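WARN retry 2 of 3 for item q-0093 after timeout on previous attempt; input resubmitted unchanged.
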Amino acid sequence: MKKEEDVFKEFRDSFSKMKGHFHILEQRVPVNRQMEYFKYSENMRKNESPVPLNDEESEGIYQLLMREDISTEEKKHLLTTLASAKSVKAYRLLEQYVQHPDNAIADWAYMALMESRISLESELSDEQQIYISTGLGGKAEKLRFYMLILSKEKKVFEEYQRQVIEREFAYLLPKQQCEIERLTIEDQYVELLFLVPIRTDIKEVLDGVITECNQYGDFLSKGFTVTNVKELTKEEITDMIRQDGND
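OK item q-0093 returned
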């Protein structure tokens, strides 16, 4: 437990010490794809030394991007070129493109738009621009987390316990400026997808919600799984339930 507490504390403290404007990708883009994009972008800057584009040049690249005979690799290059343009016009065109992107490069388009936004704000502001990368994304200055809580001793929840969970989560989380996106109560576990302010002590918040629920019968495990990388699959949850010592 001490090790888990240290991880949560380091996570919170890392943001508390940061000074600047946070950029959090709202869409869910796998972390490995994000890293692939930034490596590609960095290599392109080194090898091609991109220069700022004027509006006409940006529009020309956008028109190429919309052609059906352009390959996925070529589209990646075009998107990254617009992202590095340091141009309001290029940013607006990327904004327009992500509304209806080619599915094969949708993640790439989201990353290009993010890079363009950071580049522009760096040019227009003296404030440090900080990019926060997670697999589940976020919203404004909130990160999206997935949480799994098992029932105590693997017992099936009774109806009143389900009502307690729904009531307490809906009441307590918003008080900490957390936003519930999905709360699912199955027979032996609870899944929660929610947005959390980046400087929030997430462990304290979750411990508090579980404690409040357990005042009505001690039916939730005090241990829980929380991640901002991905949601667990049904198979992964089933495996966790089968493991011994869930509390």
